[in-house]
Design a protein that fits this description.
Layout lengths: L30 H13 L4 H6 L6 H11 L6 H10 L4 H17 L2 H7 L10 H13 L5 H11 L10 H9 L5 H14 L2 H8 L4 H15 L12 H15 L3 H15 L3 H16 L6 H7 L7 H14 L2 H9 L3 H4 L2 H13 L3 H11 L5 H9 L4 E2 L9 H8 L2 H11 L3 H14 L2 H15 L4 H4 L11 H4 L5 H10 L4 H12 L19 H11 L12 H19 L2 H10 L1 H10 L5 H6 L4 H21 L3 E2 L1 H4 L10 E2 L1 E2 L2 H4 L1
Helix pairs in contact: 1-3, 3-5, 5-6, 6-7, 7-8, 10-11, 11-12, 12-13, 13-14, 13-15, 14-15, 15-16, 15-17, 17-18, 18-20, 20-21, 20-22, 21-22, 23-26, 24-25, 24-26, 29-32, 30-36, 31-32, 32-33, 33-34, 33-36
């Protein structure tokens, strides 16, 4: 089934998914007043007259929240309770309840804590709240069967619990309820989690001989030692030896392998009992392509293999140029993993290199039904259309109006426009919990169009089986004029720039990463400043990176800079994500590799996936911008969008079903 070219879709960008126009949502004329009131409340400067003037506004609850949150240390249970009663079940009430309960823990007001604390219905409470609940019930005289059961649950973890749990744990120990069995159970869990400190704490109440052994177990997990050869030949000794060596393998797989050989004989470790250590020894050897990786992979029992190790076995053979071994490693994968378009594509490539053309074509045809990087590469190899099967579900006008008028959604969008993203996200989640798929899709369209809140299509599509085919929602396009101008100025393919933005920030102008990369193209301030200086633009500080035009200007210039340094687009994309150092190392380790093999054998999973994602996304943006796709194979090698070889789109029957 042919796909409509983008020229037929451009006019629909501002239409509802069904083609029904979404009426523009008017900006609240009192938005400025509400914003100012919230800021005043956070400073403790909200006056009575302003508060009264906004009392009927839908966002006034958030003004009240800001005031109560600031005054929480001096708030009374009556005032907090009154607010919660006025807004039962609302996100603003749940957020205030969480803050208030934390304040009651700080105050050690256990009676009030019990009155306000509500245990989550669909998840375990945080460790702090689990311990606080134990303390509160103990302080108010409730040591019933449920208390003892909850205490045992809090004890049976391999991680350190908050200090609040010390009292309940001491009560249990004094009552003889922390039996040796429970202490060993916690020690085992802590060993599995690699927490020697918790192991020592669990061992504290054991008899002297057991305690000495338990502490030596903890010492081994912290730093493997040769005393372990004298441990009892028990299942626990063998398990802890394997766990300690698995941890050591992450730092020094050679030392872990040598010690494992000695301890396996001393403790009588079977092959399955050695498996955790053998797995990590192999993984941390192959992840850096160290010599001997193939041999260590072969020593891991088949039962211990998981998806990650199956993949690394393929990459290790690819890195050595051993096509037959790589093909055998793909064949050894479980069927579901082997049928992924990535591995079907590499199966075809390897078959092709081994002269088995008919089998290769069959595997390429299978992979080419997927709308993925490897699916598109497979289509290039057999000169097939790119598989793209957009889904544009219909939404009745009445349903659109219902979603537009949903109070929670309206509050979410209004808060987001006021840069209150955390609050907006709370309101958004509350609305999504009530919405079915059809309403979710309309809400996402509204969020994009009326609030420039583009990442909702990444986080809120739900579990609908066709949700990934909502390309118009999942791949927004904004600031197109600046994007095209800067792409042209820097000799870049506009679809590639758009794909980079989608991968970096999901088109969120104020995105900020944990590494302090900012804005649409996720630039580090130091990189942006150096880029501005290089191209002769005044540097206006880190905050300027939240301006889309500034970010696009500097981001495209930086991408051009990386392209000039690396020479090839796929390497430039890798350098944009990982930096030039790793790219230089990968080139030195595997010179002359074909682009697809080079990408797959990069040692960083994040960068492997990032490069594949950007190149796949570029096809979607070709669909959005031009209505036809540049060959991904050519795009990996060309700075601008080539026009000699383009791909039409088609909807495979397998996707349509």
């Amino acid at each position: 089934m042919p796909i409509r070219p983008l020229s037929a879709l451009v006019a629909c960008i501002l239409l509802l998914l069904s083609g029904t126009a979404l009426a523009a949502v008017a900006v609240d004329p009192r938005q400025g007043e509400v914003r100012a009131a919230i800021e005043a409340a956070e400073r403790g400067a909200l006056d009575v007259r302003t508060a009264a003037s906004l009392a009927d506004h839908p966002l006034y609850r958030w003004v009240e929240y800001a005031a109560l949150r600031r005054e929480l240390r001096h708030a009374t249970a009556e005032r907090i309770g009154a607010f919660l009663e006025r807004h039962p079940g609302e996100p603003v009430a749940e957020l205030l309840r969480d803050a208030w309960v934390a304040e009651l823990v700080r105050r050690r007001d256990w009676s009030a804590f019990r009155a306000f604390y509500v245990a989550p219905a669909d998840a375990a409470p945080s460790d702090t709240l689990a311990c606080a609940s134990l303390v509160a019930r103990q302080a108010t005289g409730t040591l019933d069967a449920a208390w003892w059961a909850d205490l045992e649950s809090a004890w049976r973890v391999g991680r350190s619990m908050p200090d609040l749990c010390d009292g309940p744990f001491a009560t249990a120990a004094a009552a003889g309820r922390l039996t040796p069995e429970l202490r060993w159970a916690r020690l085992d869990l802590a060993a599995e989690a690699g927490n020697p400190g918790v192991m020592r704490a669990a061992a504290a109440g054991l008899a002297d001989a057991d305690r000495a052994l338990a502490e030596d177990y903890a010492a081994f997990v912290a730093e493997p030692h040769d005393r372990a050869a004298g441990w009892p030949r028990s299942e626990r000794s063998r398990r802890i030896a394997a766990q300690g060596l698995a941890l050591q393998a992450r730092k020094d797989p050679d030392a872990a392998e040598a010690r494992l050989a000695r301890l396996a004989a001393a403790l009588g470790m079977s092959e399955p009992e050695q498996a955790p250590a053998l797995y990590q020894i192999a993984l941390w050897t192959v992840a850096s392509y160290h010599p001997g990786a193939a041999e260590r992979l072969a020593r891991v029992p088949a039962a211990a293999y998981d998806e990650r190790l199956y993949e690394w076995r393929v990459r290790e053979a690819l890195a050595r140029g051993d096509d037959r071994a790589a093909l055998a490693a793909i064949a050894a994968m479980p069927q579901a993993q082997r049928d992924d378009s990535r591995w079907r594509y590499f199966q075809a490539r390897l078959l092709e290199r081994l002269g088995r053309a008919a089998e290769a074509r069959e595997a390429y045809a299978w992979a080419a039904t997927a709308s993925t990087f490897h699916g598109f590469l497979a289509a290039d190899r057999i000169d097939a259309p790119y598989a793209l099967c957009p889904w544009e579900p219909e939404a009745p006008v009445a349903l659109v109006h219902e979603v537009e008028n949903d109070p929670g959604l309206q509050r979410a969008l209004a808060l987001y426009r006021m840069d209150r993203t955390a609050w907006a996200t709370r309101e958004w989640r509350g609305a999504m919990a009530r919405f079915d798929d059809a309403r979710r899709f309309v809400a996402i369209e509204l969020a994009q169009r009326d609030a420039d809140w583009y990442d909702r299509a990444v986080f809120s599509l739900g579990e609908h089986p066709d949700a990934l085919r909502l390309y118009s929602l999942r791949f927004p396009l904004h600031h197109e004029r600046t994007l095209r101008e800067q792409a042209r100025r820097n000799g870049l393919d506009p679809a590639l720039v758009a794909a980079d933005i989608r991968a970096e920030s999901a088109w969120m102008p104020r995105a900020r990463s944990g590494a302090d990369a900012l804005g649409l193209m996720q630039l580090l301030p130091s990189t942006a400043e150096a880029t501005a200086r290089r191209i002769g633009l005044p540097w206006r500080g880190r905050q300027s990176l939240f301006d889309p035009d500034t970010n696009l200007t500097l981001g495209t210039a930086h991408l051009r800079y990386e392209l000039d340094k690396q020479g090839l687009p796929y390497m430039a994309i890798a350098a944009y994500n990982a930096g030039p150092g790793p790219v230089a190392r990968w080139n030195a380790q595997r010179p002359g590799f074909d682009p697809d093999f080079w990408i797959e054998t990069m040692t960083y999973r994040e960068t492997r996936d990032y490069v594949a994602r950007v190149l796949a996304f570029s096809v979607i943006y070709d669909w959005r911008l031009e209505g036809r796709a540049v060959s991904v194979t050519e795009r990996m090698r060309s700075t601008m969008a080539p026009t000699a070889r383009t791909r039409p789109f088609a909807c495979p029957a397998v996707q349509a079903r």
